[in-house]
Amino acid sequence: MFASTEIFPAHAFGFCLFFLFSMLNITIISRLMGSGVTGSGKLNTKLAWYPAIYLLTFVGCFISYIVHGKYCLSGVYTVFGALELIMISSNIMFWHYSDGMEWSSYTISIE
Question: Is the pTM of this model over 0.70?
Fold first, then answer.
């Protein structure tokens, strides 16, 4: 493993790609599940909040990263790291929750 400071452009590019495609995935799945194209057509209120939570954590990450780079305040990079973990966790929770909603009406039987 290597630290993010060793190959910073690769780390920054990877983080931006992760955010972009995750946000795209969350938005598309939320719209599809809300429109009834997939699943039961019921968009749960929990599922509807995921894009907003994800976007807010990204904005928080961006602001804390800029503040840390400009003023080097103590604890700001810790906030950045915590928000980054919240973003990743919300992505994982969204994925599993939407899959659960999609497959909850099916019964699996082994004969």
Answer: no
